[in-house]
Amino acid sequence: MRKAKKGENGKVLVIGGSKEYVGAVALAGIAALRSGVDWVTVASPEKVGWEVNRLYADLVVRKLKGTKFLVKHIKELLELEKKHDIVLIGNGIGLQAKAFVLSYIKKTQKPLVIDADAIKVISLDLIDNAILTPHSGEFKMLMKNSNIKNKKMLIKKIKNNVILHKGAVDEIITKDRTFLNRTGNLGMTKAGTGDVLAGLCAGFYAQLKNPRKAARKAAFYNGIIGDILMHKHKGYSYLASDMVNEIKKLF
């Protein structure tokens, strides 16, 4: 019999969600779990957490007191992160959580995957060994916040971070090389597909312990899943929730 114990394949903590965006953090969490990790905890404001429980019983949910993320929650989350390998932050978190995001990112001891509104409020000098997953608008905001004018400056400031710049052709940008991913299709512009990608990044990062490999693998398989669904649906009518269900067939 194969010897194994719970947690050997990685544990992911997902920090996100708000009253406006419950689905985003749920999709990210279940995508991370589907990638092959053993455990995913979602940390969300209390009411959001109960909704995540209702959507996916497989996710462990830490329900934070109050209706939104506050700086006072950081102590609790720094203790919680000790039980996890990777932290994904930003999915559905909302810009009202800016102070919380900045403070947490400065204090965390864990490798990060940063997505959505969390990307909009940080600069590259705050992080290292992180995967960032911006679309074009978020990428511009990241460049502005980091006081970076062009790609040459970006390469100098990127350190050991990996930027997965989402687009018709994804760019996976590192300090010494840029990789291109051509899987995927126009149907992947739908809401929620980026949350699935971020969840895959976190899941693969927890397993591979390498941000570059994790970002490349996540981009490739996220696109492949979209292409499979496009053929199944004979068009772009598939949803992000369809992508989550397709992951289990691919892995």
Structure description:
The chain is α/β, with parallel strands linked by helices and 251 residues long. It has a single domain, classed as Ribokinase (UDP-N-acetylmuramoyl-L-alanine:D-glutamate ligase, 3-Layer(aba) Sandwich), CATH 3.40.1190.20. It is 45% helix and 15% strand. The chain has ten helices and nine strands. It has a nine-stranded mixed beta sheet, sandwiched between helices. α1 (22-34) crosses α2 (46-55) and α9 crosses α10 (240-250). The longest helix is centred in the last third of the chain and has 23 residues, at 211-233. The mean pLDDT is 95.
Secondary-structure map with pairings?
Blueprint: E1 11-15, H1 22-34, E2 39-45, H2 46-55, E3 60-64, H3 74-81, E4 86-89, H4 98-107, E5 112-114, H5 117-121, E6 131-132, H6 136-145, H7 151-157, E7 162-165, E8 170-173, E9 178-181, H8 193-208, H9 211-233, H10 240-250
Parallel strand pairs: 1-2, 1-4, 2-3, 4-5, 5-6, 6-7
Antiparallel strand pairs: 7-8, 8-9
Helix pairs in contact: 1-2, 1-8, 1-10, 8-9, 9-10
Keywords:
251 residues; UDP-N-acetylmuramoyl-L-alanine:D-glutamate ligase; 10 helices; 45% helix; nine-stranded mixed β-sheet; single chain; alpha/beta; 15% strand
- Kindly report how far apart the N and C termini lie: 22 Å
From the spread of the alpha carbons, the general shape counts as globular
Number of strands: 9
Major sheet strand order: 3-2-1-4-5-6-7-8-9
Distinct helical segment count: 10
Architecture in CATH? Answer: 3-Layer(aba) Sandwich
Radius of gyration: 17 Å
